[in-house]
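Risk mitigation, structural track. In case the binding assays with pyridoxal-5'-phosphate fail to produce interpretable data, a predicted complex structure has been prepared as a fallback.
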Amino acid sequence: MMNKPAPEVERATTQLGDMSAEEFRRHGHELIDWIADYFERIEELPVLSQIEPGDLKAQLPASPPERGEPMTDIIADVDRLILPALTHWSHPSFFAYFATSTSAPGIFGELLSAAFDVKSMLWRTSPASTELEEVTLDWLRQMLGLDQGMTGFIYDTASVSSMHAIAAAREGVEIRIREEGMSGRTDLPLLRVYASEQAHSSIDKGIITLGLGQRALRKIPVDDQFRMIPDALAEAIAEDKRNGFLPFCIVATVGTTSTSSIDPIPDIVPIGEEHAMWLHVDAAYGGSAAIVPELRHVLDGCHRADSLVLNPHKWLFTPFDCSVLYCRHLDLLRRAFSLVPEYLRTPEQEKVRSGSDYGVQLGRRFRALKLWMIIRYFGHEGLAARIREHRRLALLFASWVESSADWELMAPSPFALICFRARDSEGLGAERLNELNEAIMHGVNATGRAFLSHTKLHEQLTLRLSVGNIRTTEKHLKQVWDLLNDQLKKLTA
Ligand code: PLP
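Fallback model:
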């Protein structure tokens, strides 16, 4: 005999409208309990997903269900199927890439934003989103110690924020690219953007997307601390000018991806100003540190930058995604992107700010809500205390590396990222030492108890340990240190 379908399923399948309010409340409470339990037991879960490629797909039906299914079954499958296929970014022993984390007020903000489901395109489609974004980003600007000339916009990622900054910079060159494009034109010189060899690949991608071509990006060498060399920048610009090229934008980084180095912005500013170039600062990772009063100096010189990107979804406990672009020339950003067809014209358009005028997207998510809730819940002091603690933990780890005969530091640590590796105590030579360090990393990651990533510095495989998770404590650092030493012993026994 067939089981009688649950009334909830019957209703979902055969009747119109959404889930009933009563069921929504019940499942909503269950789901919040589920999330609270998830955070309570997260340390028991392997931080790096242990599944093999294709494992999840093999367990999912190839076609969609004809009839609705009970919410409880769906949530049970999140437990059974989705959870094992997750790499847990919220795990306190996630030290890879740039460690990040969500936070409770941020999750609530996302929940509400999904309920409101506004498309923040025009002021009138989303007055709350538009105005809260302005106010929240001004609060953040004050916390960072940036000047009032910087106005913020939220985009999804730093890649997109930087692409918009470079587009605004190009608009400022007055060569009618918006109207006429670049292809088929013989009147245009080669346009050039400058960034260090350590700049993030998002700058390359922005340049590709804008149709400038990869040859438009000139990579400037770095010093022994992985910072752009200002003299090399000045020489490159002068050489390009002699060749008839058009240098128009410099991208400096505060917190490069491999080592978190900081380009010397105070020395770069006058070079940009001498040639009337746009200075964009990629502070996607490192910028958040400036909310800590004693770390504010990391943004030194930025009061003369034209734009700056900072990702609250990296180190400000904001659930992905949320990237803030501060820009000093909103007129240029607007000129590059504003396009108002008749069906979007509104009586108030001259008096208000509409997000769609400042980017490629029309509809935008209500991301300001979660950031506003996070800043209100923790306060400037609470946020700064957490970032300060991450730095303390990272430096503590660095001190263990430094005082050990088996390990060495590979780069300075201005934030909370430590670059290190096992030393060549046994005369392995460069190649085998790289292999040893890679094997150590994979060995640690395979335990499921910590997750590290790597980079290459001067061809040397370097392990990266980034502290940025709101749940990380000294205990987790000690644990990963023990795991690293166990692996080293095992592999060199
Ligand atoms: N810039 C820097 C310095 C980064 O480290 C990253 C990512 O780690 C990005 C940009 C790109 O960030 P997103 O994923 O927000 O595009």
